Amino acid sequence: MRNNDSEVSLSTNVDVPLRLRRAIRLNDLVLVKRIIKNNPDKLQNPDLGDNGNTSLHLAAKLGFLEIAQFLVNAGHEDDAISRNVTWDTPLHLAVESSVPIATLLATKFPQCIPWKNKQGADAIMLSARTSPSPPTTSTTSPTSPPYPQSLTLQHQPTQPLLSTLLHLSPLPTANLLAAADLDGNTALHYASAYGQLKAIRALLAAGANSGAKNKYSWTPVAYSSTVQAEVYFKGLVGAGGDGGGGGFRREGEGGTSNRGVGGAGLRIVRTGEAVGGAGEGRIGEGRLRAGSAD
Questions:
Q1: Beta-bridge mates of residue 267
Q2: What is the distance between the alpha carbons of residues 99 and 162, in angstroms, rounded to a whole number?
Q3: Do 55 and 20 meet the contact criterion of CB atoms below 8 Å apart?
Q4: Quick check: 252 and 268 in contact, CB under 8 A?
Q5: Distance (Å, rounded) from C-alpha 100 to C-alpha 60?
Q6: 198 - beta bridge partners?
Q7: What is the pLDDT of residues 81-123, one digit of tens each?
Q8: What's the alpha-carbon Rg for the chain, to the nearest Å?
Q9: Residue 96 and residue 255: Cα distance in Å, rounded?
């Protein structure tokens, strides 16, 4: 009998990580609290089968604010900011899933706002490229920058969260705006590639350099998602004149907008079709649109 009791106890203990993740996915705060109370050592509960995401990563990814608040208050990040195997913090995931959770995490842990993941993207870049969707019970992993698989998260304004992150970060705004990922793309490159017009305006107003080139010598306007977005972008740059800190700076006629790797007269335009190869200076999915010079 003792052996059987021991086996039952061992089985129950082994199931704790799975039960905790299931409770989070079900958005069952009461059950999450009960499991953590009885198993405080399982608070972070990293899941190697899900990119090493911890409990807070999972709550942030799914957009469950109350559970995220509880985990933070329970000391989830007391020892150190948690990062998964691709170096994403919970904030990296929250900026693409939930404005309230992203705001909570940025307020509680502002030091991680400029932290970069393995692709070199920080929370400012991810916020600039995509608008968080409403909370969902889906367990699908968020898109990893800079090669997103979905362009559907664009129905909420990015500007308030973006401005909040810029304000809360301990680094000077100029440093945040000049930061680049492994391909040399700045937050303005991300905003332009994903057609986030309000983010483009906010970044330029904050002093982003419209002429910044990535490692393929492409400027942000070259990634304009549509002709209308390109016109809007250039209108903002032109309206600001040539002075100041580089935010609203006028591009030269033609500039790099019509010059890409692989020949002149080609511009990257985002669509639902992926284009292979990393040597063409793209952010995410796209296609080559021939020559439209302005």
A1: 289
A2: 10
A3: yes
A4: no
A5: 10
A6: none
A7: 999 999 999 999 999 999 999 999 999 999 999 999 999 999 9
A8: 22
A9: 32
Q: Is there a contact between 56 and 64 (Cβ–Cβ < 8 Å)?
A: no
Query: How many angstroms separate the CA atoms of 100 and 124, rounded?
Result: 16
Contact present, 184 and 220 (Cβ < 8 Å): no
- Residue 23 to residues 178, 191, 246, Cα–Cα distance (Å): 41, 35, 49
Using alpha carbons, select from 96, 81, 74 the residue that is nearest to residue 24: 74
Q: How far is CA 247 from CA 90, 139, 185, 217, in A?
A: 30, 39, 16, 18
* DSSP code, position 53: B
Spatial neighbors of 225 by CB under 8 A, at least 6 apart, are 192, 193, 194, 195, 269, 270
pLDDT, one tens digit per residue, over 41-67 is 999 999 999 999 999 999 999 999 999
d(CA 61, CA 53): 9
Cα separation, 194 vs 190, whole angstroms: 6
Q: What is the pLDDT of residues 16-25, one digit of tens each?
A: 999 999 999 9
Structure tokens at 89: 């913090």
267 closest CA partner among 286, 252, 288: 288
Nearest to 208 by CA among 177, 251, 232, 186: 177
Residue with tokens 């170096």: 87
